[in-house]
Amino acid sequence: MSDNSASTTTLHGSSAGKADNEPKLRGNLGTLGLFFSVMAFNAPLVVVLGVIPIMISSGNGIGTPMLFIIVGLIVSAFAAGYLRMSDILKRPGAFYSFITAGLGKKVGLGSGLAMLLAYFWVCAGYLPYGGVVLDSLVSNTFHGPDLPWYVWAFAFWLIVAVLGYLRVDFSAKATALVLFGELIVVLAYDVAVFANGGAAGLSTAPLVPTNWFDGSIAIGLLLAGGMFGGYEVTVLFRDEVRNPAKTIPRATYGLIACAAVLYAATSWLFINALGVDNAVSATTADPIQAMDSTIVAFGSQFLLDAATVLVNTSVLAVIVCAHNVGARYLFNLSADGVFPRALSGVHARHGSPHVASIVLSAAALAVNLVVVVLQIDAMVFYAAVLGVAALTGISVQFVTAIAIPTYLVRTGKHKQHPVKSIVLPSIAAVGFGGIVTLSIVNFTHLTGGSQFVSNILLVFVYSFFAFGFFLAVALKRWRPEVYRRIGRQ
């Protein structure tokens, strides 16, 4: 049997009988619940307050708004093939399952381990950041005690550990409340700037093609690409949503459209709030203060205070979502037998991967204890691990964009929808491939400028792919029954 032959087997006939004995998660997420769970992972308020100003200062300047549209189109092209694959290959596991089906179990397992690593590092890396911003809120805004960051980080960790253990619906409701507040603040800011006409009238200069290539478009694309992460969740939660055939496409396209329009519009209005001629210099001098000053000038001090509070809940929502996705990756890999099967336990009441969730929580706590003991700077650690997570995620999306048309053509299931099955995924592969290349070339910008550290992290990222590949080779030889199950086969 070839490496790909088992991958083309659908869940019918004998395969269905096997699937009935597999552990299965349960949930009752609707379209809005799924949308909120995924959109919260993108942390729109964190993007607006902490990323857009940096994109303008370090990326391609006033051309920043169009990058969100460009990346949104790339992601939309990918989503067409991704959802087509989801309709045909009705398995949980998302990227892990699809890559296995298209490119074989060895590449599939390497990619699955890489994505588990990416989501785990988001969980672990955002805890120090959460501790820092919560300490700032408590001590500066509320004039409370100024405690070490890890005290507040532990509070974040505890909340995430509890929500991750419970039924996914609980997390969805919590993140929905957080996201609703974030969107209200961002929309209030946008309306205020638009109504007042910006600093000197609303200019369309940021939308003119001649400004798209200002500054460093490479850095701009890297940062913009990272702002559309998390849509994999729509398929990964297949077993936990109502009517997947309708819920998953609606939530996926809703997420992409919302992110592209919201970020493009807000960055355009922010540039106009500073003034087109002053935007780059103002954000370069102090990106955070530049945004804060426009919030107060066009909104109010109350709006800024609300944004400061909601940044903390936004961070919490990111960690909750990353934890939930990471736990499900660990669950799927364990259900396949790659990791101990005990980790694929499903809670009798909540239908959650509670064992995998506990293990992920413990690992995140252990990593942060090491950071504390070794006295590593919280923000340096945060920046480095998020650089790793971003590059890993984009790389796996690139591989998935290749795997989807490969599988659909090989099985002959591309004929009814050739555009969705071949053309659009291929366009996405070119787009993601370009972003991956730019990420590697400019990786020092994500890791503080150290080439040595950047090289170590790059080796670390792709060594996980290699480890998964050779682990699959070993399983094929010594544990063929486990090898056959790789990719939720």
UniProtKB/TrEMBL annotation:
Zinc-finger listed as a keyword: no
Transmembrane helix is among the record's keywords: yes
Residue runs in coiled coils: none
Location(s) in or outside the cell: Membrane
Gene3D superfamilies tied to this protein: Amino acid/polyamine transporter I (1.20.1740.10)
Residue intervals passing through the bilayer: 32-56, 62-83, 107-129, 149-168, 175-195, 215-238, 250-271, 309-331, 352-374, 380-409, 421-440, 452-475
Primary site of residence: membrane
One Gene Ontology cellular component annotation held by this UniProt entry: membrane
Superkingdom in the source lineage: Bacteria
Membrane protein topology class: Multi-pass membrane protein
UniProt GO BP: transmembrane transport
Domain Amino acid permease/ SLC12A: 53-480
InterPro entries recorded: AA-permease/SLC12A_dom (IPR004841), APC_superfamily (IPR050367)
Keywords assigned: Membrane, Transmembrane, Transmembrane helix
Protein name per the record: APC family permease
Origin species: Saccharopolyspora karakumensis
Lineage: Bacteria, Bacillati, Actinomycetota, Actinomycetes, Pseudonocardiales
